């Protein structure tokens, strides 16, 4: 069966998965992007009365999205939306082209349904991504843009500001990524003082774009935070009226793992991150008092995982590593499962369920 047909058929994906897993993970990822580019461009998901939810002034047709890292250069956002995702987030994108860290830098931990990566914000740069985003802008659908700084930048805050101004016209929302563990010193920007300066610079740059409807700003945080960090970030998010917090990025911690790649350096994602990401989501729900939307990400692989995250306080959820193991139809499958779980538990809308545990 042609590869492009496997993208819309879970049984076919299961059949070819051993062959895909025989490839180097980065080559396998590139093959997936190439296959998605070959798909006819479909329409974004139509809104579902039960699954639709409004977050930060945006109307999401369903709460299941693709996390940043899968479509780094904004090559296939419309293909992903056409597969049933309610939204997708491209990037991380930096001002200048960046090769990233030395290879190998991406590892499948098959026994753990996990991934370790130390990619290092590899991407083709803002100019190329901006051309693609401009071309697809009229198609609609929610496409967030995850922005970052170049590794060798002398002024990383200035990099984020540049990216905010460049991408604001073509982004449904801007996701500020200060939580990747693979750029030295980046997570230090989560410190309250540094983060305040960064967010203020991004807000100012967004305004410099002079848009009638500027995109909301989402902040992506790490799961490896202390209680004081959580409280400080929550205060800042509320004070600066951020659109949402994305909780969370990959972890540098290492729970018990079975794979031979367990000791590779980098950020761990997938099933072993599930408990930590859920705990951190609950922490941010408590710290914000439910006054700011949360996006739950980390270890979500089925409708039950997504529903648990929603009940714990997430208005939206995102996937990435689970797509490696369960295929690109997973988003639509989870959305249908959430609707069943809503009915089972007596909810008529997602908004009613958020934080209801």
Give an overview of the whole structure.
Helix 6 runs parallel beside helix 7 (192-208) and helix 8 packs across helix 9. The chain has helices spanning 3-6, 10-21, 25-38, 77-82, 126-136, 156-167, 192-208, 227-239, 274-288, 303-311, 321-326, 330-345, 350-353; strands at residues 53-55, 58-60, 64-66, 87-93, 106-109, 114-117, 143-147, 174-177, 217-221, 244-247, 267-270, 294-297, 316-319. The strands form three sheets. An eight-stranded parallel beta barrel has the order 3-4-7-8-9-10-12-13, surrounded by five helices. It has 13 helices and 13 strands. It is 39% helix and 15% strand. Mean pLDDT is 93; it is low at 1-6. It has 357 residues and is an alpha/beta fold. The relative contact order is 0.15.
Keywords:
alpha/beta; 39% helix; disordered N terminus; 357 residues; globular; 8-stranded parallel barrel
Q: Radius of gyration, Cα only, in angstroms?
A: 19 Å
Distance between the termini: 44 Å
What sort of overall outline do the alpha carbons produce when their principal axes are compared? globular
Report the biggest beta sheet as strand number plus sense, adding barrel if it closes.
Answer: 8 strands, parallel, barrel
Q: Number of DSSP strands?
A: 13
Low-confidence runs: 1-6
What does the average pLDDT come to?
Answer: 93
Strand order of the largest sheet: 3-4-7-8-9-10-12-13
Our estimate of the beta-strand percent is 15-25%
Number of helices: 13
């Amino acid at each position: 069966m042609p590869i492009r047909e496997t993208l819309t058929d879970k049984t076919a994906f299961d059949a070819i998965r051993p062959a895909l897993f025989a490839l180097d993970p980065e080559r396998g990822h590139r093959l997936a992007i190439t296959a998605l580019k070959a798909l006819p461009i479909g329409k974004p998901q139509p809104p579902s009365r039960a699954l639709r939810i409004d977050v930060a002034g945006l109307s999401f047709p369903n709460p299941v999205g693709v996390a940043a890292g899968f479509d780094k250069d904004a090559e296939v956002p419309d293909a992903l939306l056409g597969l049933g995702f309610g939204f997708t987030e491209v990037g991380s994108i930096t001002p200048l082209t960046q090769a990233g860290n030395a290879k190998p830098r991406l590892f499948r931990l098959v026994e753990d349904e996990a991934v370790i990566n130390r990619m290092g914000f590899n991407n083709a740069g803002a100019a190329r991504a901006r051309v693609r985003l401009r071309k697809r802008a009229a198609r609609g659908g929610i496409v967030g843009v995850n922005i970052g700084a170049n590794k060798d930048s002398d002024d990383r805050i200035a990099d984020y500001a540049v990216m905010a101004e460049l991408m604001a016209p073509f982004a449904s929302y801007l996701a500020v990524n200060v939580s990747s563990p693979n750029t030295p010193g980046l997570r230090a920007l989560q410190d309250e003082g540094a983060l305040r300066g960064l967010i203020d610079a991004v807000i100012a740059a967004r305004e410099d774009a002079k848009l009638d409807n500027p995109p909301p700003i989402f902040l992506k945080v790490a799961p490896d935070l202390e209680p004081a960090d959580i409280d400080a970030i929550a205060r800042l998010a509320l004070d600066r009226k951020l659109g949402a917090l994305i909780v969370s990025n990959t972890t540098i911690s290492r729970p018990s793992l079975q794979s031979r790649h367990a000791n590779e350096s980098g950020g761990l994602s997938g099933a072993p991150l599930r408990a930590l990401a859920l705990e951190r989501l609950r922490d941010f729900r408590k710290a914000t008092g439910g006054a700011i939307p949360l996006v739950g990400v980390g270890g979500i692989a089925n409708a039950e995982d997504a529903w648990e995250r929603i009940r714990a306080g997430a208005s939206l959820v995102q996937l990435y590593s689970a797509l490696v193991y369960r295929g690109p139809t997973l988003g639509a499958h989870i959305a249908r499962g959430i609707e069943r779980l809503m009915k089972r538990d007596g909810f008529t809308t997602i908004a009613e369920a958020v934080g209801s545990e």
